[in-house]
Amino acid sequence: MRRYPFIVCIMLMIGLLTSCAAPTTPIPPTNPPTAEPPQPTSTPVPTLTPAPSLTPTPPTVTPTPAFTLATSAGEFLGTWVSGNYYIRFDKDGTFRMAHALDRLDSRPYAISSYQFEGTKMVTTDIKVSGVPSCGKKIGSYEIQLLKSGNIQIVAVQDQCAGRAGDITREYERVR
Question: Is residue 30 part of a domain?
């Protein structure tokens, strides 16, 4: 058993020595060198011209936004309705909500203040009746001015779920 590593070692050494042997003589090329190098041909290389497109490219259409965002109350002052939800935005920075048009002045269920910060309408409750109060919790909304002439009120952030549920909807102007 001890002879086996010795034999392997000797075989490896023989292999290394034979691979380090002197290089063999190179074989001369079969084509003798010529006195002059070959000259390039004078034939021009053809270029490919792209084929014309068979289908015309349609013009780029930029979609028109379906709404713009209000930045001041002057863009939507007045009375609006959505089902049995009525809302009236007044110039004094308040809005009223009621379930009937004739109750906006006499018995609104909410009177709130609002002001704009860029495109955000920030609101707080002033007085509520028959619905849970939001207290001093602030709500932030976007008023989308739709192409149809309607407005869409969208909650951005409001911790008062009752107010957010009542106000977020699409309204049409009361005529």
Answer: no
Residue 22 belongs to some domain of the structure: no
State yes or no: pLDDT of 133 exceeds 70. Answer: yes
pLDDT tens for each residue of 50-106: 666 666 666 776 666 788 999 999 999 999 999 999 999 999 999 999 999 999 999
CA distance 69 to 75: 10
- Cβ neighbours for 96, distance < 8 A, ≥ 6 positions apart: 87, 88, 90, 104, 105, 108, 110, 111, 112
For the chain, what's the residue count?
Answer: 175
Which of 130, 98, 96, 102 has the alpha carbon at shortest distance from 114? 96
- The domain in which residue 89 lies consists of 67-173
Residue 104 in 3-state DSSP? helix
Rounded distance, CA 124 to CA 158, Å? 10
Which tokens in the block code for residue 100? 């009937």
Domain tally, the chain: 1
